[in-house]
Design a protein that fits this description.
This protein is mainly α. The chain has 6 helices and 2 strands, in the order ααββαααα. It has a two-stranded antiparallel ribbon.
């Protein structure tokens, strides 16, 4: 006897209930305000020994349970590495911007940089970028319009 659609759905729900519970636990862990539990374990990864909080162990085990294949876990690892590289690059760019701004404004401090970052520093940076672009591309802007008018 063939199963009805409702019976098939009920069987699917019972078979995948553990996966839904795992995903609910992951969501709960990610939504917590305070991540660290204070209990750390020392682990060895390759040549390095590092300390990891118990919270992140729970999260990692739940994610590995939710992802079905090693390929999916590797893809998540690569995506996290990409995000970390972008964060690191953004921090380095901010540090370089601060150093350059402080060099060109000798009487200002790092506190002034943080205070003025959204206003005066942003205007300074845009003007600097525009000046560099004009130096690199001499036919940009007005000069390009003049050359087009002469050719036309």
């Amino acid at each position: 006897m063939a199963l009805t659609n409702a019976e098939k759905q009920a069987r699917w729900r019972t078979a995948h209930a553990d996966r839904r519970r795992t995903l609910a636990r992951i969501t709960t862990l990610l939504m917590r305000r305070r991540h660290a539990e204070g209990r750390t374990d020392e682990i060895t990864v390759g040549w390095y020994t590092t300390k990891v909080d118990a919270y992140f162990f729970k999260l990692a085990f739940l994610i590995c349970d939710a992802l079905e294949t090693d390929k999916e876990i590797r893809q998540l690892k690569n995506a996290l590495a990409y995000c970390l590289d972008r964060r690191r690059a953004a921090r380095e760019a901010e540090c370089n911007l601060r150093k350059t701004w402080l060099k060109e404004h000798p009487r200002m401090t790092a506190h002034d940089f943080r205070r003025l970052r959204d206003t005066e520093v942003a205007q300074w940076w845009e003007a600097r970028i525009f000046a560099n672009r004009e130096q690199r591309e001499p036919w940009h802007g007005r000069e390009r319009a003049i050359m087009w008018a002469l050719d036309g």
